[in-house]
């Protein structure tokens, strides 16, 4: 399965300039290549503006109802009592720290290839923006051992074991969340036989946002929505993730150590016929501390036909298409992808 997700990306190669991150630690000032035009809403860096996404206890009897409301209102929620051991998450962050603190010439040994999916490199959305991001990442689809062996020939196994365990635990949690969400939407077991099998799409993404000399002008991760059904994310104790909400603007998601952020993605937005938002989010950086996050992207297999769920005689707002076709459209159009498959004129929502 993972090979097929990698294959879906192989058809859309990137240029090296959009894969190789800067050697960030060697810059005392922000290079022009990474200086973004400032907008008014950038003034609220690292301040929570009062309105925030709900924290939901997975063990609460009302969890299902709260998840439904959060997906409708925000396209995101934070989850506690999620079942993933905190020490495992901490070890993932420790391993990420071990990897990202290496000099560039070491990390480059595991560079994602132009048409590749796994490995070290800049964010996949980079080519869509005029400036570069203050970010580096490591993407894992399947086992990362071949790439990590290039960096640590005699010491790659611990990293791989931790990442594998993390993917396993994330998958179990993702299946629980999917069952809840499909229950809310009234999607039958027949339509979701892939849930709980090994026939699904998943990717683990380690993100690193180094401390930045001029954070107000820099961008950690530019605004985007995730392509997945949903994404489960853990951020280190440094804030930076912001979610956009109509009428509110960008809202900082404050980190809580034992809480995971769940962001709904494009596939869920299409499946729910726009009932659930796909959260537009970005990451801002700071000049005090490095920031790490780990994201687990989850969704149906690449050959799954994504068809909007129509209820009460409503019309489908998107044409049906396979996950692979959607990945292809998104790889060429990023945020324009939803509008391109919309059945309504001038509407992607
Ligand atoms: O670092 C974060 O908090 C967000 C990461 C993210 O949005 C992504 O990896 O798609
Ligand atoms: Fe994201």
From TrEMBL:
Its EC number is 1.14.11.15
A Pfam family per the record: DIOX_N
Q: What top-level branch of life does the organism fall under?
A: Eukaryota
Q: What cofactors does this protein use?
A: L-ascorbate
- Tell me which Gene3D superfamilies the record gives: B-lactam Antibiotic, Isopenicillin N Synthase, Chain
Tell whether Oxidoreductase is among the UniProt keywords: yes
The family database entries (PANTHER family) matched by this protein are listed as:
2-OXOGLUTARATE (2OG) AND FE(II)-DEPENDENT OXYGENASE SUPERFAMILY PROTEIN-RELATED (PTHR47990)
- Protein name according to UniProt: gibberellin 3beta-dioxygenase
Organism of this sequence: Vicia faba
């Amino acid at each position: 399965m993972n090979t097929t997700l990698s294959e879906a990306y192989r058809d859309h190669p990137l240029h090296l300039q959009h894969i190789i991150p800067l050697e960030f630690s060697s810059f005392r000032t922000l290079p022009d290549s990474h200086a973004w035009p400032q907008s008014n809403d950038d003034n609220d860096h690292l301040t929570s503006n009062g309105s925030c996404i709900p924290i939901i206890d997975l063990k609460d009897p009302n969890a299902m109802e709260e998840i439904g409301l959060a997906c409708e209102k925000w396209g995101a929620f934070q989850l506690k009592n999620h079942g993933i051991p905190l020490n495992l998450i901490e070890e993932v962050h420790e391993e990420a720290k071990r990897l990202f603190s290496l000099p560039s010439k070491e990390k480059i040994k595991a560079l994602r290839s132009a048409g590749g999916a796994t490995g070290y490199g800049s964010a996949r959305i980079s080519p869509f923006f005029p400036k570069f991001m203050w970010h580096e990442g490591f993407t894992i689809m399947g086992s990362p051992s071949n790439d990590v062996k290039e960096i640590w020939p005699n010491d790659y196994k611990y990293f791989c074991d931790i990442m594998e365990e993390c993917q396993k635990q994330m998958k179990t949690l993702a299946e629980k969340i999917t069952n809840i969400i499909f229950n809310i939407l009234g999607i039958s077991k027949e339509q979701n036989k892939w849930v709980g099998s090994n026939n699904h799409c998943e990717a683990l993404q380690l993100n690193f946002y180094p401390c930045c000399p001029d954070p107000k002008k820099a961008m950690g991760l530019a605004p985007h929505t995730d392509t997945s059904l949903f994404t489960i994310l853990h951020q280190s104790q440094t804030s930076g993730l912001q979610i956009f909400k109509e009428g509110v603007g960008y809202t900082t998601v404050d980190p809580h150590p034992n809480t995971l952020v769940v962001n709904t993605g494009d596939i869920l937005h299409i499946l729910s016929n726009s009932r659930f938002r796909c959260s537009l989010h970005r990451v801002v950086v700071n000049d005090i501390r490095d920031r790490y996050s780990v994201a687990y992207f989850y969704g149906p297999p690449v050959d799954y036909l994504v068809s909007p769920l129509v209820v009460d005689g409503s019309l489908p707002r998107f044409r049906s298409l396979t996950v692979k076709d959607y990945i292809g459209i998104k790889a060429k159009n990023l945020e324009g992808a939803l509008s391109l498959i919309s059945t309504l004129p001038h509407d992607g929502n």
